[in-house]
Structure prediction request, 95 residues.
Amino acid sequence: MDSRDPDDPRDDSDGGGGDATPLIIGVLSVIAGIFIVLSIVAVFTPRDTTTPLTASCTESCWGFIKLECPANRIMSACFGFPGCGGTPHVCGKDK
Prediction:
């Protein structure tokens, strides 16, 4: 006679130990989606292209796009969250 209860969730002898793969894929998909949305927002953010070349600027990473602060000029690709910072450089010129 079998003493296991098939309806008891504590009985893991049926091989249903739980797979975390769908959860991990879901979390990574949400993170990638956030970076993609930030990159799209950065592309469509209004830009001031009249920044003089003598001014000092920093940079900001919006998802996958590096922007120049405060002019919002697209500089290159990156991976990070928004926020101006880093070492100052001459506006209009990449480091």
Notes: The longest strand covers residues 56-69. The chain has a mean pLDDT of 74. The helical segments are 21-44. The CA atoms of residues 37 and 79 lie 13 Å apart.
